[in-house]
Automatic annotation (TrEMBL):
This is Unannotated protein. One of its GO terms (cellular component) is periplasmic space. Keywords: Signal. CDD domains: PBP2_NikA_DppA_OppA_like (cd00995). The keyword Nuclease does not apply. It comes from freshwater metagenome. Pfam families: SBP_bac_5. The keyword Signal applies. Residues 82-424 form the Solute-binding protein family domain. GO terms for biological process: peptide transport.
Amino acid sequence: MKILSKKLLVATVAVSLVLPASFSFSQVASAATPVKGGNLTILRGDLESSLTPSIPPDNAGIWVVEEIFDTLLLPARDAKSLKPSLATSWSASKDGLTWTFKLRSGVKFSDGTPMTSKDVKFSLEENSDPAGNWGFINSSISKIGTPDPLTVTVTTKTPYSPLPAVMAIFANSIVPFNYGGKTKEAFGDNPIGTGPFKLATWTKGQLIKIVRNPYYWEAGKPYLDSVTFKLVPDANTRANQVQGGQAQVNEFPSYSSVKTLKSVKGVKVTAFDSSAVHYLIFNNTKAPLSDVHVRKALAYLVDKKAIIAAVTFGIGTAAGAYMSPTSWAHNVSIKGLPYNVAKAKAELALSTQPKGFTATINVTSGSADDNSKAQILQSEAAKIGITLKINQLDPSAWTEARNNKSYDIMFGYCTTDIIDPDEIIRFAGIIDGGGSSLWSYYDNKTSAKLANDAVLVDNQAKRKVIYDKIQLAFDADQPMVPLFYAPNLYSYSTKVQDFQPFVTGNYNLRNVWLTK
């Protein structure tokens, strides 16, 4: 049996995202000497749910957690390998069952308390609760040992090849033993981690301010005094505030604003390499969308190329499989259902609603892009007797409807958090994978068993055969429609240096600095 060495080796799949000629991919690191100090404000349209590492299923919460906490390992920026973080080295036993992690000496939490293997053991066990959002990611672990304060051993039930990658997921961030004597809920309101920043202020549903952690283990970092994540649902307002200097970064500006933003002095727009996949999501538990023929009828009405041209202004490529092409598990043979009104009519005729029906598309009120996509689908659906009503909700109401299954159709996206495909295969396609199949509530028990089987295989080629089957089943059932693969788009002040989001989404703000 092959035993993986210090770094989990990952084959790559070539991906070519179509971008307008005026766009650049990730900026190169600044050649200038970083300047310490300054306050960065990041504007966003999405609402965070929690800052306790084992809880948030949303990027808005995850990307803040990753600034307050550290994991044992860290994905490389290109998501093709792993790097040391709180663990300086890692190795597997000959039988592939036990992994040993050597911890970095001298690490402290933001309250000055030393971090030891006792904290690591507690953190991993907390995130292993099968009832938790991310318990599935640690389901292979049978026991965790602490031979000494700077050594942790993780033993799995069977050889489990994704284990090192799993140690790099935000949900396995290291928290103090027993939450520092607090309840889990109280800790979540005022979290303490070993990351580059610590929480200063959190006005839920409005803003989160984090400040430099004076005990951070990486010498000289972070450069910034503080970072404020501010919820601004309206895309135009976000764009105006970056232009006006009230904020420095706009997280996901609307595609329609890009041309204007690129001509604004002092503002830069960059499309960063990303594993993001954008979807049209159906509530698979709600009639008539519980009918596969209804879902297929709507899928045939999605003109992906038209959406990419009209809504994203040519950014991205039409999606087929629900796994991103940045993953070696991506099934390139899957092209998805093509735009075809005649086939849409035929599928509807086979459904429980052959004469059509009425449904609602939920969109966040400030998202120009989602509103445009909804209008395009609304127009197409009318051609075969389906009436789609567009329901604009504020971010809080939109999230509540999603979590309570009280929606018909919505738009969404996901990105990977680790370099192994196991996470997103489950999160977006398996009901108990942490995201309820990206809140489509799609439940394919055969695929769930295949996902469990895949992680027992210590051979990438054989694992890919299994993942190909899961993606084919997903394509046949159309629980949601993969719309397009796209880079992550950001607009930001030219004063912002070394802002380079990872393919996995991590911001790594410890390296960001501001020119005076």
